[in-house]
Design brief:
Elements lengths: L4 H7 L13 H9 L13 H11 L6 E3 L6 E3 L17 E7 L4 H12 L3 E3 L2 E3 L3 E5 L5 H14 L4 E5 L3 H8 L8 E5 L4 H10 L3 E5 L3 H13 L5 E4 L5 H17 L10 E3 L5 H13 L4 E4 L4 H14 L12 E5 L8 E5 L2 H13 L4 E6 L6 H6 L5 H11 L9 E4 L7 H7 L4 E4 L7 H8 L1
Helix pairs in contact: 1-2, 4-5, 5-6, 6-7, 10-11, 14-15
Length: 446
């Protein structure tokens, strides 16, 4: 049972050292009770207190990492039901199903699709995160052969071994030693054997059940067998059932602190129709799935799912923004154009993309506006003539340009006169209102 803030406070050092970032130990205790801080922020807490406070400070949904290295993926650790309360923490994982009934060439081709799936969107690297290797043949030898191919061709991605055969799981999972795989396929009939495989190989364990009641019983048994990292499959197949079960699981974990269901959830979106699969996967993303399994990863589908996931897992209270600085696009010379805009990520990538499309080398001065777009920042007093002028002066760009011309967004043409007063010797040019007009604007200046 979760402890209250006062109960937590009694176990803290009570030194008010502020090392945790809070003014007092009581304030830190209240943050712990509200799950807005973690116990590791307090360097002076005793081991006895750590043990007692572990449950109180742990997130309702257990964090689990699959894979290793720079492409390791973390899931779980969620603390809220709705993203407007506090941002969702770890984006769901997309995994492509690869069946061991396929030929080596077919498996290799699918691995190549996963490895090459990465794309850049507003400064974030988005990709298919893992492969679910399914023992569709029922043959342990075929699963091992397929696992060897996956291990060789997609070594960097997270791997899920999907089989109900503990012996087959044992053989396949050893090929991914040290890469934190997920062994999926534990159920009421094989739980102890599968738990042993997961424990011995330091892997997470995926548990399937026909309903939430059975699922909670199995998770408690798995913990008794010494496995802490669990992934839940409630047996939901339809979109309706996925929404219902995933919501009940998250609500039980968050609102009731029901530990047997406080784990990441896996959902299976595979459908014969690719568009229908994308729609079902969208439901999984929106409603709490930590792993979404797909049967195909066409680029159009990836883009749609990546975009939805990125939007849902972006903090709605903190606009996406890029670093304030002067960006060189192409190979700018002293007489190359100098644009200025705000540091809202979408604004930056749209403007820089249009400049790149024009094939003209330019400089783009990106000013910190707390992640707001041009008009919003201007209305909020964060993209004013005074602030723009100070940014240009502080940047030192005056030493690199020959013509001292600054091109401002057309939507804030009203700032041109004030900017000329605050930047003596500079010419202020009003650029296009819309970014897609930049190539024509630059062409007309050539």
């Amino acid at each position: 049972m979760a402890l209250s803030g006062v109960e937590i406070f009694k176990l803290l050092p009570k030194t008010n050292c502020k090392k945790c970032g809070q003014p007092t130990c009581l304030a830190f205790a209240m943050k712990l009770a509200q799950r807005q801080a973690t116990l590791d922020l307090c360097p002076d807490v005793s081991e006895e207190a750590k043990q007692k406070l572990g449950e109180a400070s742990a997130p309702p949904v257990r964090p689990i990492t699959l894979g290793a290295g720079d492409k390791a993926t973390k899931m779980g650790e969620e603390t809220v039901l709705f993203r407007h309360d506090k941002k969702f923490v770890n984006p769901c994982i997309f995994a492509l199903e690869v069946k061991d009934t396929l030929s080596e060439a077919e498996i290799t081709a699918l691995c190549d699709q996963v490895v090459s799936s990465e794309m850049d969107r507003v400064g974030q690297k988005l990709r298919i995160d893992g492969i679910m290797l399914s023992n569709a043949s029922g043959d342990a030898a075929k699963l091992e052969t397929a696992a060897k191919t996956v291990a060789a061709k997609a070594a960097a991605v997270a791997v899920i071994i999907n089989t109900t055969n503990p012996q087959a799981a044992e053989t396949a999972v050893k090929l991914f030693a040290g890469k934190k795989p997920l062994v999926f396929g534990a159920n009421a009939s094989n739980l102890e054997a599968m738990a042993t495989v997961a424990k011995n190989n330091k892997a997470a364990l995926g548990i399937s059940a026909a309903g939430l009641e059975e699922l909670s019983v199995l998770t408690e048994k798995a913990k008794g067998f010494g496995v802490e990292d669990l992934v839940l499959d409630s047996g939901a197949q339809t979109a309706k059932a996925i929404i219902e079960n995933n919501t009940l699981i998250r609500r039980a974990a968050i609102k009731k602190n029901f530990k047997p269901l406080g784990y990441p959830v896996i959902s299976f979106a595979q459908r014969g129709d690719s568009l229908l699969e994308a729609l079902v996967a969208s439901v999984c993303i929106a409603k709490y799935s930590s792993i979404v399994v797909l049967s195909s990863i066409e680029k159009w589908k990836n883009l749609a799912l990546f975009t939805l996931r990125q939007n849902i897992y972006t903090d709605p209270q903190v606009p996406m923004q890029v670093e304030q600085k002067i960006y060189n696009i192409g190979d700018p010379k002293p007489d190359s154009p100098l644009f200025v805009t705000t540091n809202f990520s979408l604004t930056y990538f749209i403007v820089s993309g249009e400049i790149e499309n024009s094939k003209a080398s330019c400089r783009l001065a990106v000013m910190d506006s707390e992640g707001l777009s041009v008009l919003t920042a201007w209305a909020a007093g964060k993209f004013t003539a005074g602030k723009i002028a100070q940014f240009i002066i502080d940047s030192g760009i005056e030493k690199e340009v020959a013509n001292k011309e600054l091109i401002i967004p057309g939507y804030v043409a009203i700032l041109s006169g004030s900017l000329e007063e605050k930047l003596p010797g500079w010419k202020i040019t009003v650029g296009p209102r819309e970014a897609n007009a930049i190539p024509a604007f630059l062409k007309s200046r050539a």
